[in-house]
Amino acid sequence: MKNNFILRTFMCSDIILFCFFILIFRMIQIQLFDSKNYKEAVKSQTDIVKNEGGERGNIYDSKGKGLAYSINMYELSVDPKRFVESEKGAEALKELINKKYIKENYKPLLVTIKRLGEQKRRYKRLNKNVDDVEKKEIEDILEKHGIKGKNIIFLEVRKERRYYRSDLYFFLVGNIGFKNKTEKEGVFGIEYLYENYLKGEKTLKTISGIRGLGIGLPTSQARTKVNLNGMDLHLTIDNDLQYILNDEVEKQYKKTNAEEAYAIMMDPNNGKILATSFFRKNKKNVANPIFQSQIEPGSIFKPLVIAAALNEKKITRNTNFDIGDGTIKKYKHTIRESSRKIKGILTTEEVLKRSSNVGMVLIGDRFTNEEFDHYLEKFGLYEKTGVDYPYEKKARHVLPKSWHGLKKSTMSFGQGIAITPLQMITAFSAVINGGTLYQPYLVEKITDRDGLVIRRNLPLEKRKVISPNVSQQMRSMMELAVLEGTVVKAHVEGYRVGGKTGTAQFSENGRYVKNEYLASVVGFFPVEKPQYAVMVVFFKPQGDAWYDKSGGTAAAPVLGEIVKRVTKLKNIYSQSIENIKVQGKKQNFKKVENNQELLVMPDLKGMSAREIIEIFKGSDIELEISGVGVVESQSPEPKKELVDVKKVKIKLS
User: Fold this and answer.
1) Four-way CATH pick for 239-569: 3.40.710.10, 3.90.1310.10, 3.40.30.10, 3.30.230.70
2) How far apart are CA 371 and CA 341, in angstroms?
């Protein structure tokens, strides 16, 4: 018996030991040899992998106005398979329909969802445009019915790009779209050019949890990059100036029934583009003509040629030119003045003021072809400006040795040379800013979401073109053109404005079209220290007579209206107001009567509240101002004595 017991004991021990060795072997196999496969199997059942990406950067104007930005939108969906297995889904669905979060009838929708559930379908969209406010209310309903987070009825977030006033900014800011059918990216304008800064970074985020429910475990650790968001762009564009420019151009575009109209406003002292605008009847053409189309500028080109001649001392401001009867023959072609009244002896100043074509030909004759070509190159007309906008067009450079006989003569008054509007206003800015050609730009700086500046675009001086003295003379002559010449319709009482109009013949397929013109104006203000340079162009304006289609009639009034509105917006005091202020401060509105000095009331009509406060600053007179706008009435009346007056009442309207 004893031997049998010992034998059985050994047999049991051997069996247990054998099983133990098998277990050890299996553990070694699992831990060392098959561990990778088992880890992957566990991960496939527990790990939730999410593809996360940062938000696309925003685009702002120079004052922080959002022009392009991303917002969260949500899709409300249902998992039909889980829905039919749930007891509470139907009640939640009914409440969502009653509160208009789902715009379908309850019973038909319930039948559809149950049918899909029986087919083991896992997805049906209920509402694709849920905003943040609606999301919170929907989540409260799901939580009330105890199905929030169970993926029965659920919300999925998506990013949507929104644009402020696309009618103003679409062709400048651009837009985003699908290029690779999976992710949206910039396809046009600034959105396209700065794609690498604007786009957010992408990463995969892994969370351990219940994969079937999409719920992460509290102890799980997920690592991802802290900031995946794209950078923000801050433009040089001023939204207020953009609105004014666009509004005035649109009004005249409709009035003249032009085929196209475009305009640009720039700070001539640094190359900042402050506003752009354009309209066209042909909606299929999506190119931005300010950067991507070439025009023959016409007479707005003349200041460049005169500035070059003054700078080379080939002429002076008072050099006389005999234009005879207003015609000149060059290489068997007759060049005529636009008006029969232009004839006789004209000074350089009068050539510019009256926009004499023959006078410009005579000025051009003082250059050799090579000298003329050299200044065109210095003004940047043979190269891209370098502006930060995609697909800028470059002018074609024909070497002087290949010029035909009339080439220099016609270029002298802006025909026979094709440049972009941006090239034109950039070169014009060099004429008025003291002689420096700057590279134009649209993006002032790039920041991260914390406001840290990643990149800043600074004014880039490309070259000195003319001397400061010549620039000052050009400003003075162009001011005279506004006061007495072809730009008189841009004159604004009390403000010093300079400019030049143009009326270029429209060319098509290498030939000029009869009675079709390109009417334009370039201008600047204030004359003494220009802060704004403006160019406005109307393509094929319509009218009963040539006069109605000319730059002086079709374009110059727009410059005047822009000056009026911008000076009010930016509180630029007129010259007459400056005189009133000096009188008010230094002379105390004094007049002498019977050897006695008396205070008199100035005429305030048409002034703003700020201007009035400036006038009476430092006096003992109390101001009572009511209303908004400019002065409609005042008490006391103008020129009334103020000796015993303690209060002045002003009504604005």
Assistant:
1) 3.40.710.10
2) 32
Q: Reduced to 3 states, what is the DSSP secondary structure of residue 134? A: helix
Measured CA to CA in angstroms, residue 299 lies from 65, 98, 180, 576 at distances of: 37, 68, 47, 31
pTM score, two decimals?
0.77
The mean of the pLDDT values for the chain is: 86
What angle is formed at CA 132 by the lines to CA 126 and CA 136, rounded to 5 degrees?
80
Contact by Cβ (8 Å): 563, 530: no
Q: Does domain 575-652 have CATH number 3.30.10?
A: yes
Neighbours of 17 (CB within 10 A): 10
Task: Give 292-319 pLDDT, tens digit per residue.
Answer: 999 999 999 999 999 999 999 999 999 9
Q: Reduced to 3 states, what is the DSSP secondary structure of residue 49?
A: strand
Cα–Cα distances in Å, from 36 out to 22, 45, 49? 21, 14, 18
- What percent of the chain is modeled with pLDDT above 90? 59
Query: For the chain, first and last CA: distance in Å?
Result: 126
Strand partners, 210: 215
Beta bridge partners of 336: 327
Superfamily of domain 45-65+164-230: Penicillin-binding protein 2a (Domain 2) (3.90.1310.10)
Give tens-digit pLDDT for 454-496.
Answer: 999 999 999 999 999 999 999 999 999 999 999 999 999 889 9
Q: Is residue 362 a contact partner of residue 347, using CB atoms and an 8 Å limit?
A: no
Block residue for tokens 């992460």: 216
Q: Which two tokens stand for residue 33?
A: 């040899």
- pLDDT tens-digit profile of 312-326? 999 999 999 999 999
Residues of the chain with CATH 3.30.10: 575-652
